[in-house]
Structure formats: C-alpha cells, structure tokens
Amino acid sequence: MIRPIKYSESLKENILFRRQSDMSFAEESVKKILEEVKSGGDAALLELTEKFDGVKLSALKVSEEELNAAYCSVDEEYLRILIASAKNIARFHEQQYPKGFQIKENGIVLGQKFTPVACAGIYVPGGTAAYPSTVLMNAVPAKVAGVKKVVMVTPPDKKGGVKAEVLAAAKIAGVDEIYKVGGAQAIAALAYGTQSIPKADKITGPGNIYVATAKRLVYGLCGIDMVAGPSEILVIADKFAKAKNVAADMLSQAEHDKLATAVLITDDLALAEAVSAELEKQLETLPRKEIARASLENNGKIIVVESLKDAAALSDFLAPEHLELCVEKPFEYMKDIHNAGSVFLGYGTPEAVGDYYAGANHTLPTGGTARFASALGVHDFMKSTQYIYYDDSALKAAAADIERFAESEGLSAHARSVAKRCEK
After folding, report:
1. What are the φ/ψ torsions at residue 323 (nearest 5 degrees)?
2. Starting from the edge strand earliest in sequence, which strands make up the sheet with 101-105, in order?
3. Where do runs of H (alpha helix) occur along 300-347?
4. Closest to 362 in 3D by CA, of 71, 141, 119
5. In degrees to the nearest 10, what's the CA dihedral of 103, 108, 112, 118?
C-alpha cells in the first residue's frame, strides 16, 4: 500500500496530478463519428446506438409517459432527497446570478447586460455510471440562469431505457427534452443538431475520453464547460485529524476510476502512518476495491511536509479538483489557498457533501486547470453584451483622441468614421 514519503523539491514533478489525458488515440474515431452524425442525423444516431450500446431503438426521445412512469417508480424517500438537493443547488447558484451595470456621464452611456443561452445541452453518463447528481448539477444552474430549453442526452441501457432515478432527477430539475443517446455521437447531435435533437449553444457534463474528445473538437461551433480528466482529491491534514476519516475520503475518489488521484499532505508522520494502515484496512470491505486499489497504487501518495504552510504552497502548485482542509482552523488556513476547484473546510466536511447535497457544484476543473478555471455555474449558461452610447457633444469632445489613435494603427477609415460625424 502507499507508504508515507518525506517531501523534497526534487519530488515535486513526480507528484503532479495528470495534467492532460492523452486523447490522440480517440481523436480519429471521434472525428469519424462527428461526420457520420453531421451528415446522417437521427438515422446515424440510431445506427451508432445499436453499434456501441447494443440496443436497437425505434425512437430517441424519452416520452412524457416514460418520464412520468420513471418518476412514480422511484421511492418517496429518494425523491425527497433529490428535491432537497435540487433546492440546495438552486439556492447556492441563485447567488451567482450576474448583475449588469450602466454608467452615465456627460452624454455618454456605457453598460453591460447578461443574457442566458437559448439552448443548453447536458450530457449525463449512463450504464454503470448513471448519476442523478450529474443531472441536478448541470440542469439546475442552467434553469437558474434562465435557459429556455435544456436538452439532456444519456446512453440507454440494454433494454432501451434510462435509469429511473436519472429521469426523476431530470423531471425535478426541469429538463425540457431527454434523448437516449450517448458517447461522442450524443455530443455531435448537440453540436450540429439533428431531425429531432436541437442544436445547443452550450454543452456541459462529464463523460469518458470519447465524450471529452468530442467536446474539445466541437468547441467553437458551440461552447463547452470544460474538458475534464480523472477525478482528484487532495487532503491537507494536521495532527488532530482522524486517520479513518482521511482514508475514507481518499478512497471516495479512488473508487471512481483507476486513473483517479488521491493525495494526503500532512505535517504529522504519525497521522501519515495511521492513514496508510487505514487505507489497507478499509479497502478490504470496499465494493469497488479493485478500482480503488489500482488508483491508489498508480497515483496515490502520502506526503509528509515540514509545516502546513508548505502544504498550502504544494497544494497551490497542484491546483486540485477537490481540496479538503482537515485542520484545526480551516477558515484561517483558507487564505493561503488560491488554486482549487472546491474546498471542503474542517474535520466534519467530507467531499461527498459537495458531490450530492450542499449545493455548490460538483463539476470542477481537473488536471491542474483550477489555476485558471472554475466550477460549473450560472455563468456557464450566460453571456454578456456590452453597449455604448455617445451623444453629439460627447463624440466631438473625444473625436481628436479617437482619430489620432486610429491613425497611429494605420486605420484611416476608423478615424474618418468619427471625423465625418463631427464635420460642420
């Protein structure tokens, strides 16, 4: 199992999270799929669904009857949890709603307004990785932003259906249309539009390397949220943290994927040793232990540093997707953290709270991109438009400056467009 290692600068490059997944092997096949869907529309989607998902569909769209039946089949207690989670997500994201502004002075009006995209497409993984939480985390912020049409795509199961809990979450979140299609072909459908699936202005949601590659290739034709890689967790813990909790939190990400990364940084060697032992102990009873073990053996690390200040500096270098501050004074420590997708403060806040219930988004930048990228939010489903007004006197007052600036760049027509308006 993972043995604690003492940190040194020479180790820094060896403990980097995976910065980018190698997508080159997927690119050619994804390009072919994109072209097939672009030219073939729904017929191509049906053919590709049969090829990749092993099910022959007669229709792509989830009917209202199918949606309502799924909702009614979910037990009331689980529905209550989905509704409570959706409310928490809405409450958090309502605070993100951007406010426009307007400046008026001396015959000049400058301003900025925000407008939601007309259609948002959300991708929800299917099969064994069917996550109702992904539906809520993508659809609720879109609805808060004011998006009129939210279209969801998700792969069908072998019987041609969609997991009832996923459909129930979609109904609760207010998804407008749902289609049974997954993989790169689903991204193509949202990017190009087909006979039944509308073209989306923005595509969000996680997926495998083929989905991620497709999103990257269609960017520009439409917007995307991010190209996410394997999940990551970094735990910074002091001597007062409980080893069993730290180990459990590391495993909560390791069970996602063999490529997932779980790292502990601590200034206490005794805690490091205890967490190492706990990981081995807890692995034995974990249902997804083979995946988690591979993740820990390939990418897991327990690093011992001289001080928590050093831990903060190393964390900023790594820019993790999830950062847990299992320390005595987490809010004070937070000021030393600048690069992280989402931060979980204190001994009693496991990362799972954010995955499902707190309301902050769980779609986060990975691979060190938290240095410049942010969590999915209302801003992803909106765009800003700036506007400018000059009356005659304001334009005349600024004319000489504008003309001089334009001429300095060799753009005489720009200068003349001002000068003509100022002629007597």
Report:
1. -130, 120
2. 101-105, 108-116, 382-390
3. 308-318, 330-333
4. 141
5. 140
Is 321 known to be catalytic?
yes
CA distance 398 to 408: 16
> Would residue 338 show up in a list of annotated catalytic residues for this protein?
no
Q: Which of 321, 324, 351, 403 is catalytic?
A: 321
Q: Tokens standing for 359?
A: 């309301």
Q: What is the 3-state secondary structure (H, E, C) of 246-310?
A: HHHHHHHHHCCCCCCEEEEEECCHHHHHHHHHHHHHHHCCCCCHHHHHHHHHHHCEEEECCCHHH
Q: Of 255, 322, 324, 362, which one is the catalytic site residue?
A: 322
Give the other-Cβ count within 10 Å of 102's Cβ: 11
This prediction has a pTM of 0.94
Quote the CA–CA distance of 82 and 84 in Å, as a whole number.
6
Q: With both helix axes pointing from N to C terminus, report the angle between 24-53 and 183-192 in degrees, rounded to the nearest 10.
A: 100
Q: Give Cα 194 to chain centroid, integer Å.
A: 25
Using alpha carbons, list the distances in angstroms from residue 358 to 241, 290, 339.
22, 29, 21
Over its length of 424 residues, how does the chain's per-residue pLDDT go in tens digits? 799 989 887 777 666 555 455 667 889 999 999 999 999 999 999 999 999 999 999 999 999 999 999 999 999 999 999 999 999 999 999 999 999 999 999 999 999 999 999 999 999 998 666 799 999 999 999 999 999 999 999 999 999 999 999 999 999 999 999 999 999 999 999 999 999 999 999 999 999 999 999 999 999 999 999 998 889 999 999 999 999 999 999 999 999 989 999 999 999 999 999 999 999 999 999 999 999 999 999 999 999 999 999 999 999 999 999 999 999 999 999 999 999 999 999 999 999 999 999 999 999 999 999 999 999 999 999 999 999 999 999 999 999 999 999 999 999 999 999 999 999 8
Is residue 409 packed enough to be buried (19+ CB in 10 Å), middle (13-18) or exposed (0-12)?
A: exposed
Q: In terms of Cα–Cα distance, which of 211, 210, 206 is closest to 231?
A: 206
How many residues are present in the chain?
A: 424
User: Do the beta carbons of residue 274 and residue 302 sit within 8 Å?
Assistant: no
Residue 152 in contact with residue 142, Cβ under 8 Å? no
- Token duo for residue 34: 């994109």
